[in-house]
């Protein structure tokens, strides 16, 4: 478990010495960033509102995030302006007691920092308090929310602002070290701790009442008033001790029992909300397991160690309920333990653990295949194959992959050392920087040295050939056998390829550690991604130093930047521009030289009301929103969705002019709860609905702004139609083609069997199930297009629509997907194929719930010289499941896998599993005779892998706002 505070101290010292800074105005060029929906770096601070309904987490990844409690649902991300380098990380933050204001700070650069105050409800930047002379170490609100205290690094002491006026009401710069602890009492007094060894107590008007040396160690770190403001608990950075002091004169009252466990520290302390318990955490573990220590009787009583669901240092603690505790950790992770010590909330990191990749980062000779562990060292190994566009588990080491060479040159002291050497001569690094990894070329004429903040290439004499700032600590390096590129495993979870001639980055890969979605991208943002993986990256766009930044997921620019053909060429050309020209030439495209993403930014919306979590009554909700167009393109539409389906708008509602920048929409809430199959029900507990608003310009649809509202009912909504919904099914199965070479054995039968399984739901979950089958010769292009139109027209807001496609699919030269109907021309899919645009439009405009089942990755041996390569439907799935389309997408296979059929199953594997699951075998979680979307997905994934021996891996995509609703019930 790493010592994170010493690392922070070294990092901050290096930043202050660097002299590099964010300019007066932050850079305007978009910055590519990883975005998982969770933090990707250390969580330094957490904060909670007085009602314990909202949790703030603040991270070194340059973002702060607001989560709902107790669910742990992400409400909003706060993005101050940043640069693309190691500056602008956030180290401190707080949430106001009323939960309406977020304050964050860190380091801006050039020995200057700012506190950014955000509106927690809509994310706008309220105010920037700038001009602070060093790193901001801690921020806290007074208990009445009227004051904000800030500690400033070095010997710069503390400031306290009156929030309403911005006036400084307390200033004390007489500190001999960093102040990491700030806490307010109920009467407005302020207490602080500093690494100068002192604890200080101030009156409400700013007078220094007491200054005493901490009783237990040299580096008091955290401090917090007890709920009654009678005592102060102090945790230490340099010792495994906790002190409880008098809040009157700072005298030592008692020292809780800290025996046992590791010899680390208990740097973070917190009281329970009722003061009965005292908690402490930090570098405290037993046999490698992290614990939070809890004492009864406010620290005087017995000690109990509570296991925390994290592998890293506990960085901060906050009270939870009466006797529970919230924690933030360095993984990054956060969670909550209840009064009995049980984990009731746990959000673990989605970032691959790149620690100890010194010998387990394996690379092929040409650099196109890389094997690495998603966990520490070689744990949970995967193999990324650039040419095949696959990521697969890799228990056995494939032939042709080799670990980094660390012999052949006399390089020493390179592992976790500040003074690496060649033949006894120290190699140059930045002050406070440590060396982390080494790779020596096969010819032993050069070596790569990975360090904390840089990647460097040296020749055999020790002369530095080049050095590059790194996006994180270089925890593993390797050199391809052909010597053309270096491959680096970075802290933050990325693998990156660098050109050996000058160190320029060529390619980056991020793999989600939990679900293994992945995305690979070039420096300009051309990417290829697995299903659901494209929005793991996006562009951060600053809006000046006094406004919140925007973020746009890569999927907003899919048509332009989803270019697997470019990504796959980059390691051959070693030049992005050349790779783009070659790919465009092969596809017959005109190469675009304009790379300014700002010219095509989609619009940005924010919901002003209702607030997230608000309770509403009645059938309609008034939504106030703002909308702006960063690119300047006119806004052409504003759309509302409820539970990720098009919102009903009452007749006669006036159209809002979106050019005004602010508008109002009336949306109708559905009669049914979103997790039901569509049947209205009386529910006194009410239903939670997601209301989203997005805007559109000629450049596309922007990210949706979303709030959850809770509708409380004493019974069914007035006038609600209590009849069961209808289910409309378009089942297309094409095995008999005009071209006999395209024949498939079971595609037609798959469509019939799937439709029959849903037909049994008539009179159960649905009032009626209406099936339109298009099988084999009947499934012409015109018939399929008409069928899509039928599905869209028939399905009302209270119904459900299902599209099932089984047959061949293929891409044209531009990567656009076409489903091949029975009269298709495989040599020219545009002529008689069904384009993805028709499928998207249909599913987007369906008023009710929409599901798509895609089984179109059958063997491509006959598809017009495609040389047996199956179609990659990941792009289509990403488009259909995006928030503007809102479908749940079941895919028969991943990426470029084949979809298999076999006479033993009398079906394709995908359909066989679907039919079994819908019959009741998928009722795995609730076990109440119902089958939900998530249950069917889990069953199909396991069953298909079982049937095919792991050769076929189904996948399911849905946007975050799509509920897990019931789709079938058993007899």
Task: Give an overview in words.
The protein has 971 residues and is mainly beta. Among the domains are: 362-590, no CATH class; 601-711, Immunoglobulin-like (Sandwich); 726-969, Rossmann fold. It is 12% helix and 37% strand. The protein has a six-stranded antiparallel β-sheet. Strands 51, 53, 54, 56, 57 and 58 form a six-stranded mixed β-sheet that branches. The longest helix has 16 residues, at 933-948.
Helices and strands in order:
Blueprint: H1 4-18, E1 31-34, E2 43-48, E3 54-59, E4 64-68, E5 74-78, E6 90-95, E7 101-106, E8 113-119, E9 125-132, E10 136-141, E11 147-152, E12 158-162, E13 168-172, E14 181-184, E15 190-193, E16 198-202, E17 208-213, E18 220-225, E19 231-236, E20 242-246, E21 252-254, E22 265-271, E23 278-283, E24 285-286, E25 289-295, E26 303-307, E27 314-320, E28 324-329, E29 333-337, E30 343-347, E31 362-363, E32 369-373, E33 381-385, E34 390-393, E35 411-412, E36 421-422, E37 425-426, E38 435-440, E39 446-451, E40 454-459, E41 464-469, E42 474-479, E43 485-490, E44 494-499, E45 505-511, E46 518-521, E47 527-529, E48 537-541, E49 550-553, H2 558-561, H3 564-567, H4 570-573, H5 576-587, E50 604-609, E51 614-616, E52 620-628, E53 637-642, E54 645-646, E55 662-668, E56 687-697, E57 700-701, E58 705-711, E59 726-733, H6 747-759, E60 768-775, H7 781-794, E61 800-806, E62 809-811, E63 817-819, H8 829-832, E64 834-835, H9 836-845, E65 849-855, H10 874-881, E66 888-891, E67 901-902, E68 907-908, H11 909-921, E69 930-932, ...
Parallel strand pairs: 51-58, 59-60, 59-61, 61-65, 65-66
Antiparallel strand pairs: 1-48, 2-3, 3-4, 4-5, 6-7, 7-8, 8-9, 10-11, 11-12, 12-13, 14-15, 15-16, 16-17, 18-19, 19-20, 20-21, 22-23, 23-25, 24-25, 25-26, 27-28, 28-29, 29-30, 31-32, 32-33, 33-34, 35-36, 36-37, 38-39, 39-40, 40-41, 42-43, 43-44, 44-45, 45-46, 46-47, 48-49, 50-52, 52-55, 53-54, ...
Helix pairs in contact: 6-11, 7-9, 11-12
């Amino acid at each position: 478990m790493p010592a994170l505070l010493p690392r922070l101290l070294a990092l901050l010292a290096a930043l202050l010495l660097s002299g590099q800074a964010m300019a007066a105005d932050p850079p305007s060029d978009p910055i590519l960033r990883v975005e998982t929906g969770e933090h990707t770096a250390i969580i330094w601070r957490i904060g909670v509102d007085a009602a314990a309904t909202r949790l703030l987490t603040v991270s070194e990844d340059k973002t702060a995030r607001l989560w709902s409690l107790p669910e742990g649902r992400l409400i909003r991300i706060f993005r101050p302006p940043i640069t693309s380098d190691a500056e602008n990380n956030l180290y401190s933050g707080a949430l106001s007691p009323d939960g309406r204001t977020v304050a964050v700070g860190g380091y801006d650069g050039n020995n200057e920092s700012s506190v950014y105050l955000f509106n927690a409800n809509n994310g706008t930047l309220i105010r920037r308090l700038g001009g602070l002379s060093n790193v901001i170490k801690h921020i806290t609100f007074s208990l009445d929310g009227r004051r904000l205290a800030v500690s400033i690094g070095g010997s710069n002491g503390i400031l306290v602002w009156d929030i309403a006026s911005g006036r400084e009401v307390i200033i004390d710069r007489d500190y001999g070290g960093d102040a990491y602890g700030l806490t307010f009492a109920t009467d407005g007094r302020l207490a602080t701790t500093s690494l100068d060894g002192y604890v200080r107590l101030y009156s409400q008007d700013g007078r220094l009442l007491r200054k005493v040396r901490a009783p237990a160690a040299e580096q008091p770190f955290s401090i917090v008033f007890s709920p009654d403001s009678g005592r102060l608990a102090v945790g230490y950075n340099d010792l495994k001790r906790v002190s409880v002091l008098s809040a009157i004169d700072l005298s030592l009252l008692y020292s809780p029992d800290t025996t046992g466990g590791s010899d680390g520290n208990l740097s973070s302390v917190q009281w329970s909300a009722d003061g009965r318990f005292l908690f402490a955490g930090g570098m405290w573990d037993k046999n490698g397991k992290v614990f939070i220590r809890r004492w009864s009787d406010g620290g005087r009583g017995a000690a109990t160690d509570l296991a925390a669901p994290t592998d890293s240092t506990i960085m901060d603690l906050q009270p939870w309920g009466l006797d529970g505790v919230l924690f933030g950790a360095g993984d990054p992770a956060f969670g909550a333990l209840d009064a009995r010590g049980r984990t009731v909330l746990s959000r673990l990191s989605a970032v691959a653990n790149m620690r100890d990749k010194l010998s387990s980062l394996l690379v092929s000779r040409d650099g196109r295949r890389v094997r690495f562990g998603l966990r520490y060292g070689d744990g949970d190994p995967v193999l990324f194959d650039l040419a095949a566009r696959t990521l697969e588990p890799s228990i056995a080491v494939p032939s042709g992959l080799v670990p980094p060479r660390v012999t052949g040159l006399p390089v020493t002291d390179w592992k976790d050392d500040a003074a690496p050497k060649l033949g006894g001569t120290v190699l140059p690094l930045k002050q406070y920087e440590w060396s982390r990894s080494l790779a020596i070329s096969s010819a032993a004429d050069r070596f790569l040295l990975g360090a904390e903040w840089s990647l460097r290439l040296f020749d055999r004499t020790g002369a530095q050939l080049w050095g590059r700032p790194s996006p994180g600590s270089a925890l593993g390096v390797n050199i391809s056998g052909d010597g053309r590129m270096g491959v680096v495993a970075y802290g933050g979870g990325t693998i990156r390829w660098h050109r050996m001639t000058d160190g320029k980055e060529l390619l980056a890969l991020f793999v989600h550690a939990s679900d293994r979605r992945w995305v690979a991208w070039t420096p300009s943002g051309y990417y290829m991604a697995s299903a659901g993986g494209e929005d793991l990256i996006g562009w951060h766009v600053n809006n000046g130093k006094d406004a919140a930044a925007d973020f746009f997921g890569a999927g907003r620019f899919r048509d332009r930047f989803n270019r697997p053909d470019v990504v796959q060429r980059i390691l051959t050309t070693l030049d992005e521009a050349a790779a783009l020209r070659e790919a465009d030439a092969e596809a017959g495209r005109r190469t675009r030289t304009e790379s300014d993403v700002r010219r095509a930014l989609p619009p940005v919306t924010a919901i002003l009301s209702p607030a997230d979590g608000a309770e509403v009554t009645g059938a309609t909700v008034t939504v106030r929103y703002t909308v702006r167009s960063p690119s300047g393109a006119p806004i052409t539409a504003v759309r509302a969705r409820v539970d990720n389906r098009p919102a009903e708008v009452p007749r006669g509602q006036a159209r809002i002019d979106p050019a005004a920048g602010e508008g109002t929409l009336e949306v109708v809430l559905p009669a049914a709860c979103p997790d039901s199959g569509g049947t209205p029900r009386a529910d006194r507990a009410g239903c939670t609905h997601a209301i989203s608003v997005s805007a559109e310009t000629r450049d596309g649809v922007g990210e949706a702004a979303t709030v959850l509202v809770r509708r409380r009912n004493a019974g069914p909504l007035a006038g609600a139609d209590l009849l069961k919904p209808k289910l409309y099914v378009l089942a297309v199965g094409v095995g008999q083609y005009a071209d006999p070479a395209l024949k498939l054995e079971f595609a037609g039968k798959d469509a019939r069997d799937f439709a029959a399984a849903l037909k049994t739901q008539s009179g159960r979950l649905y009032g009626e199930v209406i099936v339109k089958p298009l099988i084999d010769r009947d499934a012409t292009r015109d018939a399929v297009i008409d069928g899509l139109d039928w599905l869209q027209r028939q399905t009302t807001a209270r119904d459900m629509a299902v599209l099932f496609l089984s047959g061949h699919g293929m891409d044209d030269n531009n990567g656009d997907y076409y489903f091949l109907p029975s009269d298709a021309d495989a040599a020219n899919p545009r002529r008689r194929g069904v384009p993805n645009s028709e499928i998207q439009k249909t599913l987007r405009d369906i008023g009710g719930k929409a599901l798509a089942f895609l089984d179109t990755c059958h063997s491509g041996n006959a598809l017009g010289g495609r040389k047996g390569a199956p179609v990659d439907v990941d792009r289509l799935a990403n488009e259909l499941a995006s928030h503007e389309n809102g479908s749940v997408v079941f895919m028969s296979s991943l990426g470029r896998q084949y979809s298999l059929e076999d006479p033993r199953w009398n079906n394709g594997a995908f359909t066989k599993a679907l039919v079994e699951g819908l019959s009741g075998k998928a009722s795995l979680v609730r076990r109440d005779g119902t089958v939900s979307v998530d249950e069917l997905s889990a069953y199909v994934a396991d069953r298909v892998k079982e049937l095919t021996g792991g050769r076929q891996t189904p996948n399911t995509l849905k946007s975050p706002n799509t509920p897990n609703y019931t789709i079938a019930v058993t007899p």
